[in-house]
TrEMBL record:
GO cellular component entries: membrane
Species in which this protein is naturally found: Nyctiprogne leucopyga
Xref: InterPro entries: ConA-like_dom_sf, MAM_dom, MAM_domain-containing
CDD domains: MAM
Underlying gene: Egfl6_1
Stored PROSITE patterns: MAM_2
Domain MAM: 2-148
Lineage, highest ranks first: Eukaryota, Metazoa, Chordata, Craniata, Vertebrata
Pfam short name (any one): MAM
Name this polypeptide is given: EGFL6 protein
Length: 149
């Protein structure tokens, strides 16, 4: 498995240069490292911020599971989407509100065909709200199908 959480920095993360704003590091409540966040007051409604993770060693014709923590805190904070490079048009995962401000776990199966997925993009779309944030943390890629809860 590959640990792409932000405190360790072993993975190749890049901010998209063509979007409207950047994701920024935010300190974890526990004080052990940080996560990436987009505060609700950044940008204008419908603006986008994209954070791309480059995956270099995924083998063709294999399956992988992308597991990550996410948080949508605040009223009408916006949307968090995940795109895989070989399926650019539609998000493979999308969430537009949190029931509360707790961290939750997202899982996405990456099934490699002849074309391998070489990047995953986390896209934040700004909502109407002025408080809260969208956060992503603990991004891990493991080989095999996603485990059941």
């Amino acid at each position: 498995s590959v640990d792409c959480s932000f405190s360790q920095g072993v993975c190749n993360w890049k901010q998209d240069a063509d979007d409207d704003f950047d994701w920024n590091p935010a300190d974890r409540d526990r004080g052990d490292g940080y996560y990436m966040a987009v505060p609700a007051f950044v940008g204008h409604k419908k603006d986008m911020g994209r954070l791309k993770l480059f995956l270099t060693d995924l083998k063709p014709r294999s399956s992988y599971c992308l597991i990550f923590s996410y948080r949508l805190a605040g009223e009408r904070v916006g949307k968090l989407r995940v795109f895989l490079a070989n399926k650019k048009t539609a998000p493979v995962w999308e969430q537009n509100k949190g029931k509360d401000e707790r961290w939750r776990t997202g899982k996405i199966e990456i099934l490699q065909g002849a074309e391998t997925t070489n990047s995953v993009t986390f896209e934040s779309e700004r909502g109407k709200g002025k408080t809260g944030e969208i956060g992503v943390d603990n991004v891990i890629v493991i080989s095999g199908l996603c485990p059941e809860d």
